[in-house]
Specification:
By secondary structure, this protein is α/β, with parallel strands linked by helices. The chain has a 5-stranded parallel sheet, with helices on one face. α3 links the parallel β2 and β3. The two termini are 32 Å apart. Helices cover 33% and strands 13% of the residues. It has a domain of 125 residues: Rossmann fold (3-Layer(aba) Sandwich).
Amino acid sequence: MSEYFEYGFRNEEPSHTHDYLLPKIKVILAHYKSSKILDVGCGNGSMAIELIKNGYDAYGIDASEKGIDIAKRNYSDRFFLQDINSKTLPKELENIKFDTIISTEVIEHLYSPKNFIDFCRKIILITPYHGYLKNLIIALSGKWDTHHTVIWEGHHIKFWSKKTLTRLLNENGFKVTKFVVC
């Protein structure tokens, strides 16, 4: 597996982001009539598990051994260890036709976002937005070192604006249909 810093999952509890991300994701999934979903970078599986509980046929892959072990506690046949740089799915998922891929707060942690985009096809991509005004406010409020910490191994290494994310996606054959603020 390519270089990966273990996130440090301790349990199956959803993160604080679920409160504001999950309702938006469900609206988008309903709009596109998604049913078979792959959560790329699923971590401990909490987002995919919530989707399963809501009637979706969801699966998850992640590079975190600990996260996948936690996710498999309740759904052993739905979660798999995966290095996205391999560009192939685990053999258990090879013959499943996923109509939608979700990835919540993953791309900003990757050294090669292009490899990630090459791996995905139709994707709902969620990443923290770092527009110019937000960064200016962070800097002026003295929170730069706290917000953009370089101390935490595996933390954000890329910061995306709508312009840079759109460019990455367009250059790799994607059509951006919508940006939603969560």
